[in-house]
Amino acid sequence: MTETHATTAPGAPVFPPGRYGRRREPGRRRPLLVALLALALLAVLGVVSVRLYQQYGDPNYRAEVITYTGITDEQVLVDFRVTVPDGGRAVCVLRARSRDGAQVALEEVTVAARPGERHITTQHRLTTSGRPFIGEVLRCRPA
Prior knowledge:
This protein is of the alpha+beta class. It has a domain at 62-142: Immunoglobulin-like (Sandwich), CATH 2.60.40.3230. The protein contains 1 helix and 6 strands; from the N terminus they run αββββββ. A 3-stranded antiparallel β-sheet has the order 1-2-5, with no helix packed on it. A 3-stranded antiparallel β-sheet has the order 4-3-6, with no helix packed on it. The mean pLDDT is 85.
């Protein structure tokens, strides 16, 4: 036969009196402290994000491929447009890949805008080590 108490919640364990010491009261929650810690974490992450963007991200140098033509076993002509600051220069990395995805050419090309202009449209001939399938501009950075 089991003993049941009228004050014990169903499913709660029943301990013999005096055997296990005094039971602690549940801890007080501190929602304000949790909110302040979360806010501090978000502020630190925001500062780190801004610093990394300033160091590595530069929206002033943007490149896009217009077309790639003149594909032979040894070359591909890549027409591309680069956006730079007014009258700026950029170094762009161009790559050609074969049909199976292997890199068959990689070159750095320096392009310069005329004073007062921000867009440079140019064509570059990539000499390849195999038949290319595509010509790409990987990235551009300040010269």
